[in-house]
Design brief:
170 residues, four-stranded antiparallel β-sheet
Length: 170
């Protein structure tokens, strides 16, 4: 079996997920993990699929039939498995929305050897204060030898600087 990672983007409409799932199934593939969303009228997602090596090329070609409806890019996933289980932590970021929050938080994480495993962000109307509120849930994997305390110290410094609240949990 090989792992394929599909990125899909197109104008949102009913049936897009079904169209991709039908092609994956027709080629003996297994839909394993995905993150899919409608954002500003566009449908976007990333899907992890496993398929037998001898059917992977046919699946890639079949996905091309979605052109015009969905732009699909296929990447071959990495088969390398880590010998040790990496440590993950989750953090929540909340503050008044402004440009640069994701850039600054992601740079701080990267500088401390933390790799973003999953990130979800949204902006909402701030009910009491007016304006927009930025919220992010971020799961990071820590490189071997990186201490959570070092990451917490950096995030506390950054939170004060950019005026957001950051909470961390293991």
């Amino acid at each position: 079996m090989v792992t394929l990672v599909l990125t899909v983007v197109g104008d949102d409409r009913a049936g897009l997920v079904s169209a991709v799932a039908d092609i994956v199934d027709a080629h003996g593939g297994n839909w394993e993990n995905s993150e899919l969303a409608e954002l500003a009228g566009a449908f976007a997602g990333i899907v992890e699929v496993s398929v037998s090596a001898d059917r992977a090329d046919a699946l890639r070609q079949a996905l091309e039939s979605l052109a015009g409806t969905l732009a699909v890019t296929v990447h071959t996933g990495s088969a390398a498995a880590s010998a040790s289980v990496p440590r993950s932590v989750t953090l929540d970021v909340v503050g008044n929305d402004r440009p640069g929050i994701v850039r600054e938080v992601s740079a701080a994480l990267s500088a401390r050897g933390a790799s973003i495993e999953r990130m979800s962000t949204q902006t909402t109307d701030a009910a009491m204060a007016g304006g927009r509120l930025f919220e992010a849930a971020i799961t990071v994997t820590l490189a071997e030898g990186i201490e959570v305390d070092d990451l917490v110290t950096e995030l506390e410094r950054l939170a004060a600087e950019i005026q957001v609240d950051v909470s961390l949990s293991d």
